Every structure is written in structure tokens, then in C-alpha cells.
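B., you asked whether I could sanity-check this one before it goes into the benchmark set. Here's the sequence:
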Amino acid sequence: MEELALTKDIVKDLITRGYHLLVNGVRQKIDGDFWEFIVRVDEDACVLVLEDLLLWKDRELQLVGLVA
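And here's what the prediction gave me:
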């Protein structure tokens, strides 16, 4: 699998397409209760909320890999 560095434009596009989270770099859509989904995710997973990523600096976003 190929990884892409994130940009704010990519994050905005993912949100527009209905995605809510990145779990270990993989985009996720949440159907149902957000917190129930989070509880079921492996505790060692890296979970990032896409809307929160819009507040990050560009240099910080570049460090996050998106699995393409």
C-alpha cells in the first residue's frame, strides 16, 4: 500500500466525501454512534479525527501518512 502525506485540501476532501476518522492512516466513515466506534478500535491504533486535523499546521499534517 502506498502512503500519501496529508494536506488540508486532502483532509477537506475526505470530510466532504463523508469520512470522519483516520485509523492507522486508513480513512473511516462512521455509521451510528461515534463513541461506540472509537471504543471498538484497538487501543494501540492511531486514531485521528479529520475535523481536528484542519486545525493542525501544514508541517504537522505532512507527518501523517494516508494509506492510498
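One thing to flag: Residues 25 and 66 are 5 Å apart (CA to CA). Otherwise nothing jumped out at me.
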